[in-house]
Specification:
Length: 580
């Protein structure tokens, strides 16, 4: 057994398989802890009962050598001297047990020889685990601060979220309610909902939806505020918030472009009146083939004008009527020793986190019709300035590439509090975020943002900046009205009146486990907006039921039942054999 455990724990391929092929993390070995404890107990028994042997020193010497060899690996940090000291102490304890056993053997005190050996080894292990756990938590900054804990569990948040979700349910509305705070608070709330009526768009899970992950990272191009690419955070991006149906925002900060709805203690409740419903109907669609040809920033703004479907539902060309007053712009940084222009971009050398004011200057005013090239599609995607817009929704759209000249360190840049991070190369969850994209709401005639550069040395290139006034809500022709009684568990139910034949569009990530029923009949579900659930819909009033069936659930139930029956049969047989 010892050799099998050693191979499974020591050969990376087994750890990779146990992690489901996602990464190499030793946490997958946690289920083997009982076996490790059993082997440890057997080792202590062997050491205490057998005579001292110099061959028993080999594991301790090998352990010290491995610690020294791996001292520069991620996670070791300042811990490796501590681990080395512990190994030396354990080695000393082993040698001490040899001396003690020899002394007590001569005095013929066998029982105390055994107890003494166990107490020395087991006692030193227990002390080490207690001290190491405390030291490791401090090193990783995982000791939870009392003040921070009180902030993220404030009862006023519960009241604020309840107010927002009650508002969302009025007249059958189906919207998301999100909580925004500092980067640390957002990380703590990735998977948190405060009541069963709250819907969010953030998640932190190893078993992520690949299409949704690709949409966030590549198709849309969201900010990545954390070094771990699996942490899909709530965002302040006003385009994404509207697209995902984030109508209600609970935060301590002042929000731009949204209406203050109420206050609960320090927490403010805002309403985004332009947000889409989580489910809506529309006839305004464009083909995914042509959407894929759109460059930045049209890949974002277009999603507020057209629903993207596998193939166009109309015979018309894929025309996009807006974004009105889209300007090319440039950021002018104030004088600062950490910033210098280089090769058409910027070179940053910050000895500490540095805040800089950047002025937004319009460079090219696009007031005429522009055509986005889609030659291979045989159609033109036209961008005009004829659609009604909400003048209160001005947004700075910013994108640039980053090259970290110190790749062993994280790199972070904030724009008006919106964070993008490129993690160090050696990180287990390296996020590969080499293109930073931001969408920052602007208030009135605001023409300045605050940019914070983290400590480090890096280059910015291919800088693109635009100012846009977002279009109105004409895309959301038919709102889904939720039936709160039937919507529960794995079922979403409600009704929708389609003004014209078109598509049912949702911001629920597509999965083959979803089944859509329209007026009691199953319909073919499709992937819309490149990553979300939808289906074709005819004009008229319809009852909608969306049900989710987890893949493999039926097989899992059968296997569990077979396992339980096998256990019962073996238990009965063992009981019968015992009586005999």
């Amino acid at each position: 057994m010892a050799w099998i455990i050693a191979i499974v724990a020591g050969v990376p391929v087994f750890v990779y398989i146990l992690n489901g092929g996602l990464y190499l993390r030793d946490k997958a070995l946690i289920p083997l802890i009982p076996l490790f404890c059993y082997m440890l107990a057997m080792y202590l028994k062997k050491v205490s009962c057998e005579e001292f042997s110099w061959g028993g020193c080999i594991p301790y010497v090998v352990t010290m050598e491995l610690i020294y060899i791996g001292r520069n690996q991620e996670g070791m940090g300042n811990l490796w001297p501590f681990l080395m000291t512990e190994s030396q102490i354990m080695f000393g304890c082993y040698l001490a047990t040899g001396v003690i056993k020899e002394v007590w053997r001569k005095r013929r005190k066998t029982i105390w020889r055994i107890r003494g050996t166990v107490l020395i080894l087991a006692g030193s292990m227990a002390v080490f685990l207690a001290v190491f756990d405390n030291q490791y938590a401090k090193e990783k900054q995982e000791m939870l601060d009392t003040t921070f804990y009180k902030q993220v569990t404030d009862s006023k948040i519960t009241d604020a979220i309840q107010t927002a979700t009650d508002e969302a349910k009025k007249d059958g509305g189906f919207y998301r309610t999100v909580q925004l705070g500092t980067d640390d608070e957002n990380a703590a709330n990735l998977n948190r909902v405060w009541n069963t009526d709250q819907y969010i768009s953030s998640i932190y899970s190893s078993s992520y939806n690949k299409a949704y992950q690709n949409f966030r990272k590549d198709t849309f191009g969201l900010e990545q505020p954390y070094r771990n690419f699996l942490m899909q955070s709530e965002e302040s991006n006003p385009i994404y918030a509207r697209f995902m149906g984030e109508k209600y925002i609970v935060t301590k900060s002042k929000m731009k472009g949204v209406r203050l709805l109420g206050v609960s203690g320090e927490w403010k409740i805002y309403e985004n009146e332009s947000a889409a419903s989580i489910i809506y109907g529309t006839s305004q669609v464009m083909s995914e083939k042509n959407y894929d040809k759109l460059d930045y920033p049209y890949n974002q703004t277009t999603l507020l004008q057209k629903a993207v479907v596998p193939e166009s539902a109309t015979k018309q060309t894929d025309s996009i009527e807006a974004v009105d007053n889209l300007h090319n712009a440039v950021l002018r940084f104030g004088e600062n020793s950490c910033i210098s222009e280089a090769d058409g971009g910027y070179h940053i050398f910050a000895k500490k986190d540095t805040k800089v004011k950047a002025e937004i200057v319009s460079r090219i005013d696009i007031n005429s019709v522009n055509t986005v090239n889609t030659e291979n599609a045989g159609e033109n995607t036209t961008v005009a300035n004829e659609t009604k817009t909400d003048s209160g929704n001005r947004v700075l759209l910013l994108r640039f590439k980053v090259k970290n000249l110190k790749p062993s360190k994280d790199l972070t840049i904030w724009v008006d509090g919106n964070r993008n991070k490129l993690s160090a190369k050696q990180r287990v969850y390296y996020n590969d975020n080499t293109t930073f994209t931001y969408a920052v709401a602007l208030e009135g005639d605001e023409n300045q943002v605050e940019v914070t550069f983290s400590k480090g040395k890096y280059n910015l290139s291919d800088v693109e900046a635009y100012i846009a006034t977002l279009p109105g809500t004409e895309l959301y022709e038919s709102e889904f009205l939720q039936n709160s009684t039937k919507t529960k568990g794995n079922v979403i139910a409600g009704n929708l009146t389609m003004q014209k034949s078109g598509y049912l569009i949702t911001s629920i990530p597509y999965d083959s486990g979803f089944k859509i029923q329209v007026d009691g009949k199953n319909v073919k579900s499709e992937k819309v907006n490149t990553a979300f659930l939808g289906c074709k819909m005819k004009a008229g009033e319809h009852d909608i039921v969306i049900t989710y069936h987890a893949p493999g659930m039926a097989a899992g139930k059968v296997m569990s039942f077979v396992g339980m029956m096998g256990f019962l049969i073996l238990s009965v047989l063992e009981h019968v054999d015992t009586k005999k």
